Amino acid sequence: MTAATLPFAEPVPRLNPLTGLRHTFTLTWRSVLKIRTNMEDVVGLSLQPIMFLLLFTYVFGGALAGGTHAYLQYALPGLLVMTVVFATLGTGLMLNQDITGGVFDRFRSLPIARWAPMGGAVLGDMVRYMISVAITLGFGMVLGFRILTNPVSAVAACVLLLTFALSMCWVSALIGMLVKTPQGVQMFGFLVMFPLVFGSNLLVRQATMPGWLQSFVKVNPMTDLTSAVRGLLTGGPVGTAALHSLLWALGIFLVFAPLAVRAYLRRT
Amino acid sequence: MTNAIEASGLVKRFGKTTALAGVDLVARQGTVLGVLGPNGAGKTTAVRILATLLRPDGGQARVCGYDVARQAHQVRQLIGLTGQYASVDEGLSGVNNLIMIGRLLGQSRGRARARASELLDRFDLSEAAGRPVKTYSGGMRRRLDLAASLVGRPRVLYLDEPTTGLDPRSRSDVWDMVRALVAEGVTVLLTTQYLDEADQLAHDIVVIDHGKVIATGTPDELKDKSGGQVLEVEPADRDLMGVAAAVLAGRTGAVPATDADSGLVRVPVADAAVLPMIIRDLDEAHVELAEFTMRKASLDEVFLALTGDRDPAGPGDDNDEIRELERSAR
Lengths: 268, 330
Known about the structure:
The complex is a heterodimer of chains A (268) and B (330).
Chain A: H1 17-37, H2 39-65, H3 68-101, H4 103-108, H5 116-143, H6 151-178, H7 182-198, H8 211-219, H9 221-234, H10 239-265
Helix pairs in contact in A: 1-5, 2-3, 2-5, 3-5, 3-6, 3-7, 3-9, 5-6, 6-9, 6-10, 9-10
Chain B: E1 3-14, E2 17-28, E3 32-36, H1 43-50, E4 58-63, E5 66-67, H2 72-78, E6 79-82, H3 94-104, H4 109-122, H5 138-150, E7 156-160, H6 168-183, E8 187-192, H7 195-201, E9 204-209, E10 212-217, H8 219-225, E11 229-235, H9 241-252, E12 257-259, E13 264-269, H10 274-284, E14 289-296, H11 299-307, H12 319-329
Parallel strand pairs in B: 3-8, 3-9, 6-7, 7-8
Antiparallel strand pairs in B: 1-2, 1-4, 4-5, 9-10, 11-13, 11-14, 12-13
């Protein structure tokens, strides 16, 4: 047992916070690589918005707005919100798979920042959200959607969507931490997301709804987000709705990010 | 410091279940400590505590002098972990899994890449390096798992049932790798359900049952402790196994076991002086012998003697159960 001759480094007692950031970026790289290598994921990510666009435009368009083009102009901002919100489910799913598959145990046995695996997963998912937004907007334009404002507003709309997604994905992350199986994440995720997405002005004008539902629609953050994105893409008032959605995003983040991180750390 | 791992009085409860009820362990530096026990005995829980994945409810443990609870960050810099739970990322290729770990451990891009290909080479995975891990066979995956735990050149390596579910060839590959690591000065803590594995690899053995240590010692000491020697007799004519068994019973006072498949009759022998008498008796009974062997009791026999009749090599493992307990305890 010649301990002195072994080429082992002495351990250091503390982690430099900057090193923690580097860990996060390494794990972001991992998430992005996984999107590239997992073709099923890419196909699902691209086909889902296309399917939504086709279904909603051509099935509901005539009934809801008297014509498919008019409805597409109205609904596309809502569909952008919907795709991005549904895409946040992927965050919870991936975290849950990492836990059940044992990858997180490997991470936790490494001398890295405790929050880096979560941070990396969330940042990596931003890339997925960008893909969703780009496909929905691009395919919408192929079907005839026109941006009636200017490029700067359009970019602002996308940034707003991504900001909101960045906060919503912590809700998904929390579900991913608390639920036992990936299937469970899917189910609970939909139970949370469906009422939020459909109980809003995302696809249908709220004036057509019963009074009690209108009061829910009014407080639903999706309504503010949709109004803001709609204003930024097709014109109309933006200010209040955009401010409200940013405040909602901040609020959701402040509540759910610490809860998700706590749930993750408590697994030790 | 000559002990790489020192644990004393480790206690861990999940709700009402006590997984560990005061476990002491010592692994000398540069040796293999085998932790044996039936399913649900607490082996995996002990490893998870020593790997900083679980906090003990009582007792303490040190790895190379660092406390696993209070100095977890240091301990994590010293250890490598391979088990069915600490796994690789199925969605990444083999080489990217290893590069990711290297980068997380602070290696430069070039260094991480070089270390990854070195390890892939060593574990005979170079050809599959670019393929996603989900396409790997069980043996390849386990080798990658082992490679992943070695990226940071750990001083202490935990192998939790590293060969469960592997074919004999892959298993002996893993054994060779463990021996090579120990030769480099690495300390290995190995849990296993396979007693021959512990017999082959371990310098010291700890037997755990119901969360308690029920025996410790070198493989030879354990074999000596529980009954010493076994006599195996194979009559040339299998019809005479019963006659042979009667002779052995008469001379040793123990009940022989007859194995119809191998044609062997086995009996524990306390005193070698009875051997000439047994040979003479068998000769007088006209039992011609194909084989007559004295050997030390196998660890299987020791294990059964220690733990009663619980099955030491049952199919599953206790990980699922413990995972379940961990969740419900939250």
